[in-house]
Amino acid sequence: MGQKVNPFGFRLGYSQHHRSDWFASSQDYSKKLQEDLLVRKFLTREFPDTESGISAVYTRRKGQLLSLEIHTARPRVLLGSNQETQDPTNRVSGLVQVRRDLEKLFPQKIPLSLRLVEETQPDSNVALLAASLAHQLEKRVAFRRALKQTIKRAQTARGVLGVKVQISGRLNGAEIARSEWVREGRVPLHTLRAEVDYATHTARTLYGCLGIKVWLYKESQGLYQKQKTGMGQQRALDESNVSVTQADELDQARVTNPEDFNIPVLLPRPTLPKRVDATVSEETSA
């Protein structure tokens, strides 16, 4: 049997970030974990994915303050029903109402802050693609047609290098459940450097539940790429400084500004010896 691992957890620390960023002692860990689950369940129940377009919720704690960062493709849904009036006071009132509803979930009053982040490219977000596919299947759209539309949307998005979509269950009302998948482009699941996003969703149809899995391979913009880029820039800068600056100028700079001369000097790479032919001329032997 093939053993599979979640692509998101497999790449934590390399190209993915933790959704919950906080530290707690062993006595408070379970309590804070339940608070995070309450917040996520509330947002999922009150603002479904198909209506609000919520793709991710990030929680951070600093002392007693709980900060929520909600990524959504439709921020006006969370801002309230008065967004058409273009009144800033009405927009803020929508967030205030959401914050008050969240504070009622906790037995003790906890300082809470909300921040909305708009997803400018929903077609390149794996969670929104899975939610959209589930919505089409629930509307009784043929699964092959829905698969092609999802693949086409992902291909037109900027920065997407590959996509894979899989649907499992009683497809088209068949008596025997099966799985079908479509892939376009590259999806390197075994490469840790590759930034592969992964999301699952459930479509509730008349014939039962259909499981949806979406993999999305995008251009690397994560932790590994930033570290690699930073190291490469620093190495190029050091090499350029050594190649341009002559030895006399380095000595003069060390004498004039001894405090500023803290940049390590890289020694030139040793050159390989030239190849010597085995045949020796008569003049050389003589």
TrEMBL record:
Protein name: Small ribosomal subunit protein uS3c
GO CC, alphabetical: chloroplast; cytosolic small ribosomal subunit
Keyword line: Chloroplast, Plastid, Ribonucleoprotein, Ribosomal protein
Quaternary structure (record): Part of the 30S ribosomal subunit.
Domain Small ribosomal subunit protein uS3 C-terminal: 133-216
Highest taxon of the lineage: Eukaryota
HAMAP family linked: Ribosomal_uS3_B
Organism: Pycnococcus provasolii
Keyword Ribonucleoprotein among UniProt keywords: yes
Protein family membership: Belongs to the universal ribosomal protein uS3 family.
InterPro entries (UniProt xref): KH_dom-like_a/b, KH_sf_prok-type, Ribosomal_S3_C_sf, Ribosomal_uS3, Ribosomal_uS3_bac-typ, Ribosomal_uS3_C, Ribosomal_uS3_CS
Gene: rps3
UniProt GO molecular function: RNA binding; structural constituent of ribosome
UniProt subcellular location: Plastid, Chloroplast
GO BP field: translation
